Inverse folding.
């Protein structure tokens, strides 16, 4: 990527780069090894796996039975996880957007106190909260529901999102807002019509980050959920791991199926995500 | 910056306050309330039911004498130091990518780096668990084939005396108390975090080519280039990652929970403070004591963050 | 990339990609939304009572056994016009304790749960589970037409549910019923055995013969250069081994230590006796037990205290071990997955005639005291209590238990139910003497000696090192266990205050009610029983502190 307006940021020559390429590919090989293992094992039956662990089977020998089992097992988990992740992320971003708008628009009286209430949370490690949170969910009668997971994750994601969004909104030109106000737009309309379109990229990145976080969560589901129909991916995979006689082929196939949704989504939104992270990093 | 506002206009704009209310409500309920509840309950002998018994500072006294908790902190500090070293590959990777001539390659490598991130964290974890499997895992197979295992056996016999590396016996990575901490350190080889690399790269972008050309003219070696040009300029990012890493390692226990189970593995060798708190609450049912541990952990992290802020200053 | 035209195109292309990406998420979301709501509505509309039964028995055959029980039960009830659904919740053993506790505390426990010793401590039993004593006094209606008809439900079990998990001595109540019995045996590889000992060899019947077999195996390994271990071990089989060997050597010691003339000192009694100095790890009985452990441990996989359960099974299945000592619960997994024939024989232990170890034993230990396994209890919070209880009655009736035993291959727990062919060799051997005690005297103590037990199996001065290290650890751990027990006793005694108060008030309103009187007397009796233990143990503990 270019730095400012077309100034090249790279030096050296292509020949000098050979060792660098080698190094990078070596590292990448290790990084992608788990991926490779997962795919090739998922195509074998357990007996085949016992015999040959490293080299994949020939394509005509590939065993789809594992995938049938995996799909049956994992799809419900994926559905639940998508529900929790998307609902949680959407609600979370919506609330964060509103709060960030509040802080970024004007320095309202009491605003700095409220801001510090939010900021302090960034320092507070959430680890001590798990136990009382558990009892709180019980008290609210939300045990064994997906909504409990959604609410907890919404609360957790707020602070970071508000922090980032506030910076971005403050950078927006003020005249846009003034013009809208003169046209008689309410704050809510201003937010929707000005902020959302202009901040779309960062919103997208935040969406993906938050989605990713909720997708991987397993701690809360583990202690809150009881019924297998409600399991998210996190918990479901844990149970899969506890079997005595592990059928590795099936296990790997399940892992693969569990990765597909993320894979597809990332494939399409890759650039956005990478750009967003870089931009965010510079600001941070 | 947010615009300043006069008191009169603020009154007229009172509806704006409504914007912050839902968010505030969420964090008050789900973040602040549990936090206060944790502080409150750390002074009780609370088994999770409706009955609790005031014990004052007894939980904290017990924590001070608790050798398992002390051990857990030792483990977590070892992990922090290990993670410090584990930051190096990410920085190295960022530097190497940054120094490539071809921008197209730079871009594609970024993409390739993010690809492993696609695999859900849990799946990576379980695949690594599979790697550690003594009978089936590739790790033992690699060690055997490359002859490294013989080296480990020698080490064990002459230096360590652990009796875990032996001929004909699969190395019990996750079931031997001695090997737990090494397993946690090895985990995630080659220790490149895509997010980290991207952040470092972003920092490196700001270095202009003239600096490099000047360095080339002066005959500076690549390593010196790193030390004097690149490293100082990414120091902000490094500091950011450092703080995140420390806080994350201190309170993290998900890895240990999934790899080793709530007991911290064989004879609790892999116990970290977060896991110990979880263990006390959800395995032993001692919720009050768990809250006390959480408090101690919180204070620790707070102190470390302050120290970090004060002493790791960055000059622009 | 620097041309404006190309830049625009790539930016638009990028936007399209992003749109597709987020669009896909949207589609997935809608699909999952439908699924979630369908599930939610289905469960709300469908008011069939659901009974969930949770357990950790992931071994081969068990889930099928319970499935079949569920099928038969649902069918039987459907014929009577009632609809129910039985759902299994198999949870991995490693996280079961954790999982169950969170569900119990969180108030969302399944209707039937399997319990084990650590979970079934007095505190938790009293808090979370419904006592079953009342129901066990009545006959099991599902036994009509069988030889067990008319007998109180409790007496239809082979051990009358007297085991420590099913019956709580402290609370004087029964809390669980078991589905089967477990004994442990030595499984052996018949092919390998013939190779080592010759085709006409006979199975070892005394302890010396057993040791000789192990040594022959070691020699065989050296001679042929094959890695063959006499006994496959793991941290899972270690407690079985310890229990067998230690209880063999502490038979006399246990009798010497008992104080209540019931020949059954409780773990609490033994723990307090240790703290009072009445016995120690240096007693010749204990040392002999440790030496016995070391002697047998030599023949197990090196470093076995660190191996997982799957590792020892794996070694045996691959033919790298001649024998494996585990329970009848593994019978399907270990006999059906092998390429070689597998046999079973009981572990011979030193008798009173043994030259080296006989001094401390009365004789062969009887298996008559083996309690029922897979105990299932009913949490108070469970929703469909009546159906759950009824299902348990069905499952432990003559017919039900027989179905389960056949399907799962496990020894039945109900009297007179025929033992399936493949577990005949596991039938408890009832001749012999009462067992001694092992070191499992409390949860903290178990943790403490588990951490040190690997020392017992080492080569260099194992007994001395273990004893020195463990002595103080035992003292600390047993102190903690005893203190906690006192707290539990106090709490449990207190628990009876409310019902007692209520009943006494009722009595003042309804003088002369015989039923009320009976209840009050019964509860008072229980509370007094607990208080007696509380005060007695308290005094003993107080005397120990300095």
């Amino acid at each position: 990527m270019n730095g400012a307006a077309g100034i090249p940021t790279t030096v050296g020559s292509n020949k000098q780069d050979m060792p660098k390429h080698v190094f990078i590919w070596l590292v990448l090989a290790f990084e992608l090894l788990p991926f490779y293992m997962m795919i090739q094992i998922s195509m074998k039956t357990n007996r085949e796996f016992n015999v040959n662990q490293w080299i994949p089977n020939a394509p005509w020998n590939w065993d789809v039975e594992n995938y049938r089992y995996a799909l049956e097992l994992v799809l419900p988990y994926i559905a639940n996880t998508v529900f929790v992740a998307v609902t949680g992320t959407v609600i979370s971003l919506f609330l964060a957007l509103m709060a960030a708008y509040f802080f970024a628009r004007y320095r309202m009286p009491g605003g700095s106190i409220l801001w510090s209430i939010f900021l302090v949370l960034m320092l507070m490690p959430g680890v001590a909260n798990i136990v009382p949170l558990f009892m709180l969910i019980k008290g609210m009668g939300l045990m064994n529901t997906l909504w409990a997971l959604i609410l907890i994750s919404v609360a957790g994601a707020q602070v970071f999102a508000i922090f980032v969004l506030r910076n971005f909104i403050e950078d927006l030109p003020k005249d846009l807002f003034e013009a809208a106000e003169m046209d008689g737009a309410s704050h809510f309309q201003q937010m929707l019509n000005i902020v959302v379109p202009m901040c779309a990229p960062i919103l997208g990145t935040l969406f993906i980050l938050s989605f990713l976080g909720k997708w991987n969560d397993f701690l809360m589901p583990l202690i809150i959920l009881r019924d297998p129909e409600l399991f998210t991916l996190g918990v479901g995979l844990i149970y899969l791991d506890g079997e005595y006689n592990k059928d590795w082929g099936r296990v790997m196939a399940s892992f693969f199926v569990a990765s597909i949704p993320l894979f597809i989504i990332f494939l399409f939104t890759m650039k956005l995500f990478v750009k967003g992270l870089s931009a965010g990093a510079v600001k941070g | 910056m947010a615009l300043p506002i006069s008191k009169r206009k603020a009154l007229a704009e009172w509806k704006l306050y409504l914007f912050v209310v839902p968010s505030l409500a969420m964090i008050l309920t789900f973040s602040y309330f549990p936090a206060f509840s944790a502080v409150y309950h750390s002074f009780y002998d609370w088994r999770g039911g409706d009955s609790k018994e005031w014990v004052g500072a007894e939980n904290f006294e017990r924590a001070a004498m608790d050798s398992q908790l002390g051990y857990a902190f030792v483990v977590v500090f070892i992990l922090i130091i290990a993670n410090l070293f584990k930051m190096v590959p990410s920085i190295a990777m960022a530097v190497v990518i940054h120094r490539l001539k071809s921008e197209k390659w730079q871009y594609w490598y970024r993409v390739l780096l993010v690809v492993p991130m696609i695999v859900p964290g849990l799946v990576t974890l379980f695949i690594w668990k599979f790697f550690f499997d003594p009978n089936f895992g590739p790790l033992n197979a690699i060690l055997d084939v490359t002859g490294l295992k013989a080296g480990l056996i020698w080490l064990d016999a002459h230096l360590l005396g652990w009796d875990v590396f032996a001929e004909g016996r699969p190395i019990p990575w996750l079931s031997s108390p001695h090997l737990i901490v090494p397993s946690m350190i090895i985990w995630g080889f080659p220790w490149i975090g895509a997010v980290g690399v991207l952040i470092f790269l972003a920092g490196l972008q700001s270095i202009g080519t003239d600096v490099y050309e000047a360095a080339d003219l002066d005959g500076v070696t690549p390593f010196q280039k790193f030390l004097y040009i690149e490293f100082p300029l990414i120091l902000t990012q490094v500091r950011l990652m450092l703080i995140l890493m420390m806080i994350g390692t201190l309170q993290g226990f998900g890895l240990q929970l999934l790899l080793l189970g709530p007991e911290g593995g064989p004879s609790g060798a892999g116990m970290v403070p977060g896991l110990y708190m979880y263990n006390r609450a959800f395995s032993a049912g001692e919720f009050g004591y768990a809250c006390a541990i959480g408090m101690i952990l919180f204070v620790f992290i707070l102190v470390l963050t302050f120290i970090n802020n004060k002493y790791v200053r960055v000059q622009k | 990339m620097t041309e404006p035209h190309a830049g625009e195109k790539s930016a638009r292309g990028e936007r399209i990609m992003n749109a597709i990406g987020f669009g896909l998420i949207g589609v997935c979301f809608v699909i999952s939304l439908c699924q979630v709501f369908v599930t939610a509505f289905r469960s709300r509309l469908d008011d069939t009572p659901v009974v969930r039964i949770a357990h950790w028995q992931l071994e081969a055959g068990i889930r099928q056994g319970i499935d079949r029980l569920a099928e038969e039960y649902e069918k039987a009830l459907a014929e009577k016009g009632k609809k129910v659904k039985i759902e299994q919740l198999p949870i991995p053993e490693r996280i079961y304790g954790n999982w169950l506790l969170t569900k119990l505390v969180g108030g969302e426990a399944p209707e039937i749960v399997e319990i084990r010793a650590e979970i079934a401590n007095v505190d938790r039993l009293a808090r979370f589970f419904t006592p079953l004593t009342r129901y066990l006094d009545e006959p099991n209606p599902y036994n009509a037409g069988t030889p067990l008809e008319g007998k109180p439900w409790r007496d239809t079990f082979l051990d009358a549910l007297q085991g420590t998990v099913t019956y709580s001595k402290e609370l004087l109540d029964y809390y669980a019923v078991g589905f089967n019995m477990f004994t442990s045996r030595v499984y052996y590889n018949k092919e390998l055995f013939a190779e080592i000992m010759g085709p006409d060899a006979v199975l070892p019947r005394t302890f010396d013969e057993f040791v000789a077999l192990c040594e022959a195996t070691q020699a065989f390994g050296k001679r042929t250069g094959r890695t063959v271990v006499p006994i496959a071990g793991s941290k899972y089989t270690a407690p079985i081994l310890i229990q067998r060997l230690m209880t063999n050597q502490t038979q006399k010691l246990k009798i010497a230590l008992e104080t209540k003339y019931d020949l059954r000192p409780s773990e609490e009694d033994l723990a307090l006796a240790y703290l009072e100095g009445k016995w120690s790890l240096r007693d010749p009985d204990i040392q002999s037990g440790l030496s016995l452990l070391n002697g047998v441990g030599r023949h197990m996989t090196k470093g076995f205290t660190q191996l997982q359960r799957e590792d020892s099974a794996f070694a045996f299945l691959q033919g790298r071990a001649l024998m494996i000592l585990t329970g009848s619960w593994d019978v399907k997994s270990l006999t059906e997955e092998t390429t070689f024939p597998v046999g079973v024989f009981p572990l011979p232990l030193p008798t009173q005639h043994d030259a080296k170890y006989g001094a401390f034993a009365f004789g062969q230990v009887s298996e008559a005291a083996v309690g029922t396994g897979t105990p299932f209890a009913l949490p108070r919070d469970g929703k469909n209590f009546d159906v759950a209880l009824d299902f348990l009655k069905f499952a432990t009736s003559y017919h039900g238990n027989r179905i389960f035993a056949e399907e799962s291959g496990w020894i039945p727990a109900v009297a007179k139910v025929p033992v399936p062919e493949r577990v005949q060799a596991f039938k408890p051997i009832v001749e012999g003497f009462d067992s001694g005690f092992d070191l499992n005297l409390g949860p903290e103590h178990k943790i403490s000696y588990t951490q040190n037990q690997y020392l017992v199996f080492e080569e260099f001065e194992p007994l001395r090192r273990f004893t020195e290290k463990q002595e103080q650890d035992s003292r600390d751990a047993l102190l903690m266990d005893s203190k906690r027990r006192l707290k539990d006793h106090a709490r449990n005694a207190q628990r009876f205050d409310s019902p007692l108060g209520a009943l006494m008030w009722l009595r003042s309103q309804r003088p002369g009610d015989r039923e009320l009187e009976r209840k009050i007397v019964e509860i008072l009796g229980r509370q007094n029983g607990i208080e007696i233990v509380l005060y007695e143990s308290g005094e003993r503990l107080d005397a120990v502190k300095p």
Remarks:
- Chain B touches chain A through 109 residues (CB under 8 Å).
- Chain B has a mean pLDDT of 78.
- Strands of chain B lie at 3-4, 44-46, 52-54.
